[in-house]
Design brief:
191 residues; alpha+beta; Nuclear Transport Factor 2, Chain: A; 5-stranded antiparallel sheet; two-stranded antiparallel ribbon; elongated
Length: 191
Amino acid sequence: MKNIFMDKQKKKKIIIAAVIILVLIGVLWLIWRLGREPEVPLPPPEEPQPIFQVPSADLEFRPITQSPLTDTEFSIINLAKNFAARFGSWSTDNQGHNLAELEPLSTSRMKYYLQNIPRETSEQFMGVSTKSLAAEILSLTANRAEVLVGTQRIETGDDLREKVYYQDIEVIMVSSGDIWLVEEAKWQDKK
């Protein structure tokens, strides 16, 4: 009789354990379902928007209709934008730091130019912060590229007043093996 009673006890424990496992699986499944984001279908592609002017900032919006950039074009544009932003940013508090950062990106001719740029010797603070906004490849051959970078420059004086202006810079690069280096940079007239 004792064996039959123990068998009923074991069966009861097994059934309770199975029910607990099934309940846990159900709870985990419910948590997983609730945690997923619902799938939303993508809207159909829109027609290209017309070009329009933003009068307050004289900015122009043009929808992207070009083919994607090649890896080389992408590298060239990134180098030109990075170079322009660093080349155009400086302050009297940190003389030449921006130029030293550019040396690894430059040919020997450009390194010489960077090392010989006169430093500002003002007693009062002055600085310029430059952001690269856009870039356009003007010409590209197997070993030479010319890129026009549009920048926004913010000039700050010791009175902390800011003067914002826009200025393009032409960056000329040459390939050295598999890498591109800056050979020359020429600022255009301010806008």
